[in-house]
Amino acid sequence: MSNYATSRWFRVNLWLHRWSSLVATIPFLILCLTGTVLIFHEEIDHALGHEPELHETLPEQQRPLAVAIDKVHAQFPGERVLSTSFDPEGHPGMQLLVTAPRDNTGFDNARLRFADLATGELVAESDPARTLTGFLLELHAQWFLGPVGELIGALIALLVLISLVSGMVVYAPYVKRVAFGVLRRSRGPRLLQLDLHNFIGALVLGWALVVTVTGLALGFGTLALGIWQMTELGPMREQVAAMQPVDSRSPPADADAAFAAAQAGAGEGWNVVTLILPDTEFSTPRHYTALLVGSEGVEERLFRVVVIDARTGELTLVPQVPWYIMAISLSEPLHFGDYGGLPLKLLWTACTWLTLFITANGAWLWWDRRRRRTSKAVAAEGVSA
Amino acid sequence: MKGRRTMRLVLTLALLSVGGLIGMLVATNDWDLAYFLLSALPIVVGGWCAWLMRGKTR
After folding, report:
1. Are strands A303-309 and A287-294 parallel, antiparallel or unpaired?
2. Which of B5, B31, B57, B58 to mutate to test the interface with A (most CBs of A within 10 A)?
3. A203: distance to nearest CA of chain B, Å?
4. How far apart are CA A317 and CA A240, in angstroms?
5. Neighbours of A293 (CB within 10 A)
6. Which of A49-58, A102-111, A128-137, A288-297 is least confident?
């Protein structure tokens, strides 16, 4: 055995690799299984009929946004619209409306309704919490524990990150003895599983680092939003407290006026995708909040925020999105792999399954080693007796 | 291939893969295929190496 393999540095990393992996094994297996399904959440939702039939609508055919909002309020008097969005790629021709019971300001009990942009008619609805993918997402992202569950997810990601980094250190002496790509099939199941563990681990290392680091960042998503609201957006909320609120179901400046003001204030290449109505957890009792995304490259995955006065319809504020919110925003596609079409989804699935395999076979390697040691100790005791 | 050269290969492949995944996100559509191939490179190279080394024991 080389000096390196007996060094304190190596032994510490071996201990870290073994125990961080073992502690994270069961939750990580659940994350891999649910993650595999979530990669294809769009396809599954369409197949299970949770999404309306899609069709293109020309801009001149588009009805005012307020038509669908008014229809929701008329058809469901106990509800209010929290936000309205467009998703031209995922839901062409549709206006998406997030609704909740009338006295709610949060999005926790929200329903998603779809309106035809050409007619303003409500054509479908979905309760994300009651769909298969919604259930699995809540398990994957929050462990059914809300924001606390997100932090638990971050802790699991941290354990996996420690396992990956320490795994690289532990891998170094192994490759001095065994060439890259060698799978010792004829030397017993233990060596074959060890070779598979090391070889597959090396193949998925880059992908696993990306998914783990972004998972760690996403675990702090709700916390980061709260910090932003309390710090940088805090002074604005204090000013608003002195202002007269508006009726959030029918503000003086309607959604179309707010949308037009937000779009006029958007920089070149940025488009309004979501308009949050007044008096929600992401808007003030007096203002609309508009979310804008860019049209190309990385800007498609970033967002800007514009605040519009719901009484006058004027642009009030364009707050700077802090770096940590931008980082979390970019982490989402890099974690779920939904930004490169079917080929990337298949690559994501392959890497997830390979990672699933080495997690399970790593646990088996530990268990097998322990079993062998126990039987050797029993045999030695038998001899000495 | 053994030792440091293997470590260098593994780390280089991991870095290229990370570069491909991030590049695909930040670049315009024209470069998507190139970045996708880069992100899949470790699996392709690993598969090729495993094929070449089949039957070997060291």
Report:
1. antiparallel
2. B57
3. 5
4. 12
5. 18
6. A49-58
Of B18, B42, B57, the CB nearest to A203: B42
Residue range A144-158, pLDDT digits in tens: 998 899 999 999 999
The answer to whether A63 touches A120, Cβ cutoff 8 Å, is yes
How near does any CA of chain A get to the CA of B2, in Å? 5
| Tokens matching residue A359 | 């997690």
- Is pTM beyond 0.80? Reply is yes
- Which amino acid, one-letter code, is at A356? L
By DSSP bridging, strand A94-101 and strand A303-309 are unpaired
The alpha-carbon gap from B14 to the nearest alpha carbon of chain A, in Å, equals 4
Chain A residues touching B25 at Cβ < 8 A: 298, 301, 330, 333-334, 339
Residues in CB range of B36: below 8 A, 6 or more apart: A340, A343, A344, A347, B20, B24
Give the strand order in the sheet containing A315-317: A122-126, A111-116, A94-101, A79-86, A270-276, A287-294, A303-309, A315-317
Kindly determine whether residue B25 and residue A171, on different chains, have CB atoms separated by under 8 Å: no
What is the pLDDT confidence band of residue A382, given thresholds at 50, 70 and 90? confident
What is the complex's ipTM, to 2 decimals? 0.94
